[in-house]
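--- STAGE predict ---
source: upstream dedup step, 1 unique chain passed
mode: sequence only
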Amino acid sequence: MQSEFGELLRAARKRAGKSMRDLALHLGVSIVFISDVERGNRSPLKSERIMRAAEFLGADSEPFLLAAAKSKGSFELDATRVSGKARQVGAALMRGWADLGEGDLEKIGRIVRRRGGVNES
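--- STAGE serialize ---
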């Protein structure tokens, strides 16, 4: 049962010339775990591991994060290494997500991309 996330991970890993063992060692998981994720027999990686895997593979993390969210039905926000204000904003965003208009979302996206050093096309 192949998954979009697993397909993306496998393709990026192969493009980077890395083995499942290489990726597993980098992430601190077993080869079986990576194999299961790639085949869709296990849920996509958590956000923190997605970011680490993407960096290791020299890939953009956004497609992985989007595919994981699609599979899980939600996005994850790591609230452990951010300020109290950041947690408040994250909670407010989660509460009001469904009510935001396209213009609001575009503004938020521009701010986040600019702060993250991502150039807009």
